[in-house]
Specification:
Elements: H1 3-14, E1 27-29, E2 32-34, E3 40-44, H2 51-64, E4 68-70, H3 91-101, E5 104-108, H4 114-118, E6 124-127, H5 135-142, E7 148-151, H6 158-170, E8 176-180, H7 196-205, E9 210-212, H8 214-218, H9 221-234, E10 238-242, H10 260-276
Parallel strand pairs: 3-4, 3-10, 4-5, 5-6, 6-7, 7-8, 8-9, 9-10
Antiparallel strand pairs: 1-2
Helix pairs in contact: 2-3, 2-10, 5-6, 9-10
Length: 284
């Protein structure tokens, strides 16, 4: 073998394989398209606690650039004595706030019986981490046509997460967005360990849009924004974060909720990161 042939063979062996991401199927969430080149920011309170709290938060996050609103009507809590959400009591004022802001609502459904009850209020159903393995709920959501935001369970393998999405898709509803929200590891300094690897893997190996929830992943207010920045940098399709006008008064997850000034600053920095990666912020 000549030196030239040897060099050619060596180059072929050393050339790294480049993984080509699968094409993402964009999902229309109300009037917002998630999974395209734009980066979506969904923000709002962990729980809808009152008319004034919901209205104040919704108005503020829209002004700062959020394209969708989050807010829990029913909350699954580890402690049975903890605040479980207002439930149907929140319906008395939800339409008014949504009409005033023009933002679509993303809210968690914790029981198949709640799907019909929430249908008039939400543009996307959220499946929380505790319900990722609730196949009865996933099958019911497969019969709807509204988008489903599927959070990864804190104990789930990536493959199990993708297969949970397939339960929804198998029913005919392919409008699914995956959400990485941290996994339970041996580490205790943060609430969970944020699995940035999973975001990249899911983007490269599935056709579902992928967003992240740094609020639940970290559980510490000061660390939420930096994780959101990392997600934007690696190509996530968006973030969903908790915002509360007065986190010290929050009835759930106050320690991980951004203040309104925190959120405004996070949005400014995210826009700069997106500019550096040639991506626009999704605006409504």
């Amino acid at each position: 073998m000549t030196d030239l042939e040897l060099k050619s063979t060596s180059t072929a062996i050393m050339k790294p394989e480049v993984k080509t991401p699968r094409s993402t199927r964009a999902v229309m969430v109300g009037n917002v398209r998630i999974g395209g080149p734009e980066f979506a920011v969904i923000a709002g309170p962990c729980s809808i606690e009152s008319h004034s709290q919901f209205s104040e938060t919704a108005t503020a996050v829209k002004a700062a650039g959020a394209c969708l609103l989050r807010g829990g009507v029913w909350k699954m809590r580890t402690d049975v004595k903890a605040f479980q959400g207002l439930g149907s009591e929140a319906f008395q004022f939800m339409h008014q706030v949504l009409n005033e802001t023009g933002l679509g609502l993303v809210s968690e459904v914790t029981d198949p019986r709640q799907i019909e009850m929430l249908d008039d209020y939400v543009v996307m159903y959220q499946v929380g981490a505790r319900n990722m393995f609730n196949y009865s709920l996933l099958k019911e959501l497969g019969q709807t046509r509204k988008p489903v935001l599927l959070k990864r369970s804190f104990s789930a393998l990536i493959d199990e997460w993708i297969k949970a999405a397939d339960y929804v898709a198998h029913g005919g509803n392919e409008n699914i967005i995956l959400c990485e929200r941290g996994i339970r590891t041996f580490e205790t300094k943060t609430r969970y360990t944020f699995d940035l690897n999973a975001v990249i893997w899911a983007k490269q190996n599935s056709h579902f849009p992928v967003i992240v929830d740094p609020s639940h992943a970290i559980g510490i207010r000061d660390m939420v924004a930096p994780v959101a920045f990392a997600a934007a940098a690696v190509g996530a399709d968006g973030v969903i974060v908790e915002v509360h006008p007065r986190p010290a008064e929050a009835l759930s997850d106050g320690k991980q909720s951004l203040t309104i000034p925190d959120f405004k600053q996070m949005m400014k920095t995210i826009e700069r990161i997106l500019e550096a990666t040639d991506r626009p912020l999704l605006k409504v």
